[in-house]
Known about the structure:
alpha+beta; two-stranded parallel ribbon; elongated; about 350 residues
Amino acid sequence: MAKFSGLGGRLYRGETSVDFIGKRKIWYSISGLLILASAVTLFTQGLHLGIEFKGGSSFTVTSTNASIQTAESALDEAGITTQTIVQKIGNDKVRVQTDALTSTQQNAVEAQLAAKYNVSIDSIDSQIIGPSWGKEITRKALYGLFGFLFVVMLYLAMAFESKMAIAAIISVVHDVFITVGIYALVGFEVTPATVIGFLTILGYSLYDTVVVFDKVRENTKGIAASGKSTYSQAANLAVNQTLVRSFNTSLIALLPVGSILFVGAGLLGAGTLKDLSLALFIGLATGTYSSIFIATPILAVLREREPAMQALAKRVGNRGEKISTSSSITPEANRGPRNQPKRDRRR
Length: 347
């Protein structure tokens, strides 16, 4: 711990520094590749929407010999050829989701499931969600997402400045898009729990970004008058000063979420948890990355375009050149030429 404490102290004092702002093209390239991969995955595979969004039928069977293969066999014998999702929940439950079915098809599925699992039809939990209900849920989810972004942008513009709000929103969109792309890649079902997870990671990503921006504002207060450093240099110092804090906070947040995802959903088979836990896990990781590598560099680029900041950068550059020039003058040069002729003291 002493080692990390010493590193954190050196980062805070500026004795050790990572050039996050100067190397922003590298971070932009990494994010660009992730966004491109997410876009390709979304275009080729798409999202697996749950029946809450697209409508359909759901059948939950409780049996001691619950298995996915048995459920798939029951669907085949019932003549269901539409897209289906079969999940095992825990050790004794299987949930089957299908597209919208007619009453005849629904009765056939229930009969086959009851026969395969040796249970009564009445014990099967059947739910039917119409497409109109799914559209309503989708519309409310989109309203909640865009409403959240609008309120956050308004708050950031009031609490900080407009350019900070723009940079923060860009980083949030970056986080959500990459998370959605990973969701499409792994094929997890998108449920209302997933939307809750997205809203949660939006809040966490903005929380980490606000912490960094608050330090940036503190370091750049009155920077144009002092002329000691450029805006990018002061912003880069702020990122280094909050680096250890961001890492520790994210690690502590990822540990319980990782336990839910890998232990709860993976080992224990709690399928209802994986939708939420995956969104939280990926979102927390990308949120920490974007607040350090994306949001602050974008903010620095936006501020460096201002005439006042450009004039400041020119003054700092000129002062650096003067210091470099003065330090290159040798003592011999100050004493003048070596081989000056001696004065003749004879009268």
